[in-house]
Automatic annotation (TrEMBL):
IMP binds at residues 315, 350-352, 373-374, 397-401, 425. Its cofactor is K(+). NAD(+) binds at residues 260-262, 310-312. GO terms for molecular function: IMP dehydrogenase activity; metal ion binding; nucleotide binding. Catalyzes the conversion of inosine 5'-phosphate (IMP) to xanthosine 5'-phosphate (XMP), the first committed and rate-limiting step in the de novo synthesis of guanine nucleotides, and therefore plays an important role in the regulation of cell growth. NCBIfam families: IMP_dehydrog (TIGR01302). Its main location: cytoplasm. Its EC number is 1.1.1.205. It catalyses: IMP + NAD(+) + H2O = XMP + NADH + H(+). This is Inosine-5'-monophosphate dehydrogenase.
Length: 497
């Protein structure tokens, strides 16, 4: 029997309002299965499948090699930003794909006849690798740990005199499970270099392995391509020079490209989509950003394999203030998805995700994945070091359209090559330390699964089907939103897991 209770998505999003995630609330459905049976596997593009619906933003304070590796290990994907020269971006892609162990350690190399005079020689590396040639192509003879070096009285002494002698190497396709076995077998080793194609590409440490063992495990597995390497995406622009950038990325083995623009429905982007599809027919290309059916239709006709949705919804975005264009993110995701689904083009809900509930809403309203910037920027895997401010550990997070990011690399794109007027569409800020994505993303996915269970959706397909049929939702008034949050307490501590 049908009850007159709540609104269908179609009715709710046809009222002339731009709604965002917090404006709407879903009415629960019927739970007929355990939470473990919720399957969050999904599609990033027509041809790329993921085990979790998570994508990291192509921003220079969010996604470089370390984030891309971790996102792939989790079963999602990272999109490497383009705010650096093409060869550097390509090398970040290559590094991310060079090992299947989810931690990146940027090893430092020396030869046996070298000495280490200062702790700074370790840079951020956990140890120094000693090879006969003193570089990554040489034959491994041993390694030096920080504590081994600290205990030295004579810092001038040569590495050959105190290094831990070892020639043990782990192959690049050793994932966490294989690395656990490796360290169990090699009881004396604290570190093992990882080798690929005759080159040492990274180093794994016993401590990392132990730490990762304590993290929650995701069922479903990692994002691995046909060559057994992590899947990694990269952003490019729509200028002539981006064709050369793309060549570098292709050589590095990039699996998907995102045409990174705030307003994707342009002559430039349509030309670029056609160029990419013609030149590299095997490569999936994601177009955007779009927020309307009209914009999406143009890019779908041009041949995109995926669409990125969101304009001005990002935490660091000022586009709606500056340019007066954009859309509430819930409406944008619903409207674009309802068109894109007719063509089998998956939608990425980009921006405005600050909790697991927002992810449930984005996915239920039709998105196949969510792209996140601020949600991931405070993690250990995001680029940059933590700073301590008023007793809190913070990491910098900035918009790619902020003045600071523009002057770092995207001037040509932003200002027009000859223009001298800089108009920011983003801000520079900071986010709190959240620890490793390898730890908090699995908890977040468990929360999303619970949301799906409450709705009565066992998969993304179920949720998408329900949104077209039985799902009911409502707009929350201001008071209802207050009620939905924590309220009326003198103090509280919000700990999610
Ligand atoms: N999602 C969002 O709401 C927003 C995102 N951003 C982010 O900021 C960054 C830059 O975004 P946009 O400024 O939109 O970059 P964009 O590269 O699309 O546009 C910058 C300027 O270059 C022009 N342009 C692009 N290709 C051209 C060509 N071939 N010939 C001549 N002119 C050309 C555009 O029309 C525009 O005026 C991206 O990382 C984007 O994701 C910025 C603002 C909003
Ligand atoms: O208006 C903008 N000015 C900017 O400078 C800017 N930089 C990034 N982005 C977009 O914001 C998304 C990340 O948003 P969140 O932090 O909310 O996850 C990203 O994925 C982008 O879509 C920008 N938007
Ligand atoms: K905003």
């Amino acid at each position: 029997m049908e009850f007159e209770d709540g609104y269908s998505a179609q009715k709710l999003f046809h009222q002339g309002y731009s709604y965002t995630y917090d404006d709407v609330i879903f009415l629960p459905g019927y739970i007929g299965f355990p939470v473990e049976q919720v399957d969050l596997s999904t599609k990033l593009t027509r041809n790329i499948s993921l085990n979790i619906p998570c994508v990291s933003s192509p921003m220079d304070t969010v996604t470089e090699s370390s984030m891309a590796r971790a996102m792939a290990a989790l079963g999602g994907i990272g999109i490497i930003h383009a705010n650096i020269p093409p060869s550097e971006q390509a090398s970040l892609v290559k590094v991310a794909k060079s090992s299947r162990f989810p931690v990146l350690s940027n090893p430092v190399f020396r030869s046996p006849s070298d000495s280490i005079i200062s702790l700074e020689n370790f840079a951020d590396a956990p140890c120094i690798l000693v090879t006969d040639s003193g570089d990554c192509r040489g034959k491994l003879v041993g390694y030096v740990t920080k504590s081994g070096w600290m205990n030295l009285t004579d810092k001038e002494t040569r590495l050959a005199n105190y290094m831990v002698k070892s020639s043990d190497l782990a192959p690049w396709d050793c994932d966490l499970a294989k690395m656990i076995c490796y360290f169990e077998e090699k009881a004396g080793n604290e570190f093992t270099p990882i080798v690929k194609g005759g080159e040492i590409v990274d180093v794994a440490g016993r401590e990392d392995v132990e730490r990762l063992r304590g993290y929650p495990r995701l069922v479903g597995g990692s994002s691995v391509d046909a060559n057994g390497e992590w899947m990694v995406g990269a952003a490019i622009g729509t200028r002539e020079a981006d064709k050369e950038r793309l060549q570098h990325l292709i050589k590095a083995g990039v699996n998907v490209v995102v045409l990174d623009s705030s307003q994707g429905n342009s002559l430039y982007q349509i030309d670029m989509i056609k160029y990419v599809k013609k030149t590299y027919p095997e490569l999936d290309v994601i177009g955007g950003n779009v927020v309307t059916m009209y914009q999406a239709d143009n890019l779908i006709k041009a041949g995109v394999d995926g669409l990125r949705v969101g304009m001005g919804s990002g935490s660091i975005c000022t586009t709606q203030e500056v340019c007066a264009v954009g859309r509430g993110q819930a409406t944008a995701v619903y409207k674009v998805s309802s068109l894109a689904s007719q063509y089998g083009v998956p939608v990425i809900a980009d921006g405005g995700i600050s909790n697991s509930g927002h992810i449930v809403k984005a996915l239920s309203l039709g998105a196949s994945t969510v792209m996140m910037g601020s949600f991931l920027a405070g993690s250990a895997e995001a680029p940059g070091a933590y700073v301590v401010q008023d007793g809190r550990r913070l990491k910098k997070y900035r918009g790619m359209g902020s003045l600071e990011a523009m002057t770092k690399g995207s001037d040509a794109r932003y200002l027009g090559d000859t223009s001298k007027l800089k108009i920011a569409q983003g801000v520079v800020g900071a986010v709190a330390d959240k620890g490793s994505v390898l730890k908090f993303v699995p908890y977040t996915m468990q929360a999303v699964k619970q949301g799906f269970q409450d709705l009565g959706a066992q998969s993304l397909k179920d949720a998408h089907d329900m949104t077209k049929t039985t799902l009911r939702l409502e707009v929350r008034t201001g008071a209802a939103q207050v009620e939905g949050g924590v309220h009326g307490l003198v103090s509280f501590e919000k700990k999610s897991f």
